[in-house]
Structure formats: structure tokens, C-alpha cells
Amino acid sequence: MSKYEKTCLIRGDGGRAIRGILDRIGDKWTLLVVATLDGPPLRFTELQRRIPGISQRMLTRTVRNLERDGLVSRTVYAEVPPRVEYELTGTGRTLIAPAVALAEWAVDHNPDIEEHQATYDSDQD
To answer: What does the alpha-carbon distance between residue 2 and residue 119 come to, in Å, rounded to a whole number?
Structure first.
């Protein structure tokens, strides 16, 4: 039995619910977009400028998925040319703390993980 009573949340429904969420937030760009939107609303071009390496297509796909999930809102202003801004919703903002905790864990444990990977890889040769 796990010492963490909430691990049943991970195993519940065969992991279907958590897999869906982890598929979304665990992709290459989602957490970068969410972290970048942690502040005032941003226009698409400014958002893209602040995320090095993301293509227009991937940013479009990512913000659309986040909008569909209710984590990002998109506001279109009736101007010429049209102005579109993106910002985190209330639900989207609740993702910041767990994402930061995960990032801190990764930074803290990355040297140990890299050491284990190197040892494992050298043992495989």
C-alpha cells in the first residue's frame, strides 16, 4: 500500500482522466505557453516572440487546444487590422503552481537523473 493515499486518483478509472490531462500539458509547448501567459494578455506575435523555436502552426494549435480546454481565453477586438489577445483563465492560472513545482523538481533532480542515465547507457554497451 502506498504511503500517499491520493495515489488512487492516479490509478482511478484506469488512469484515463489523468492521461488525457498529462497528454495536453506534457507536450513540448503547452507549459511554455502557459508560463508565458502568466501575466497580462499577449497578442499572438508577442506570445510567439517570447517562446523561441515555436512555429506559428504549433503556437496556433497549442493555444486552440488550451482554449478548448478552458485554460486560455482568446479575445478578438474589432479593429483594422483585427487585434487578438490571449490570456490565462482562472483555471489556467491554477496550473502555474503545480507546473512550477514540477519544474523545480526537474531542476533539482536532473543531475542525479543524468548520472543514472550515463551509468545505465555505459552498462548497455
So the answer is: 29
- Indicate left, alpha or beta for 33 from its phi (over 0: left) and psi (-120 to 50: alpha): alpha
pLDDT band for 90, please (50, 70, 90 cuts): very high
Q: Provide the 10 A C-beta neighbour count for residue 61.
A: 13
Is the CB of residue 35 less than 8 Å from the CB of residue 95? Answer: no
Residues in the chain, overall count: 125
Higher confidence at residue 13 or residue 77?
Answer: 77
Given a cut of 70, is residue 11 above it in pLDDT? no
Span 22-34, pLDDT tens digits = 888 888 899 999 9
- CB 72 within 8 Å of CB 60: no
Q: What is d(CA 51, CA 112) in angstroms, rounded to the nearest whole number? A: 28
pLDDT at 7: 64
**What is d(CA 29, CA 61) in angstroms, rounded to the nearest whole number?**
10
Q: Are 103 and 57 in contact (CB under 8 A)?
A: no
Cell of 71: 485554460
